[in-house]
Amino acid sequence: MPFIVALTGGIGSGKSSAAAYFANLGIAVVDTDAIAHDLTRPDSPAVREIARRFGDEYLLADGGLDRAKLRQLVFNTPSARTELECLLHPLILQEAERRIRAADTPYVVVVVPLLFERGDAYRKMAQRIVTVDCDPSRQISRTQARSGLTADEVRAIMATQAEREGRLKQSDIVLSNNGAPDELHAQVAALHLRLLKEAACHTAAAVSVCQKPRIVSE
Prior knowledge:
alpha/beta, 5 strands, 5-stranded parallel sheet, Rossmann fold, 11 helices
């Protein structure tokens, strides 16, 4: 496995923007949310299994997943959320690992929105945990702007996520996203240089361990 950086942050924190900056710098980005969408494309095996377990009412006319309706179900029904996670998470992890192994960049950024809530496997494989952070008021306004949710609905989602203080304490690196986009971009650029060095050291250490001197018997 290459040097892995797990990237996370609360809803509306700007982790997608940070991930895009890493990608612009030529770094492979593996987004677990994007994988989940790929796995639940219309008439996919995962979607058919979801329909079998929860009912055809969670399908759209084209055979795709009614994501809004399913999101409402799992948000209000913990048992349904657990069942859905047990179905999808192993598939997402398997595909994430495949994409990580296929990456050909000095390090790989793996975007895991719920890293501290349900991302034990990703935390174990990561050499660094990076959290994008901003004030809660900004989380709410940014999420409202892109989703149309009410402030109360955003707060309800935030309440299901890891507490901000705990998330920051468990992170190796925190990127502050309270300012302009260029400020976050500059932080990512600086971090990129640091991660290149750490990844090089990681690779060198792995090589020194793997390439043990051969003992030839006479």
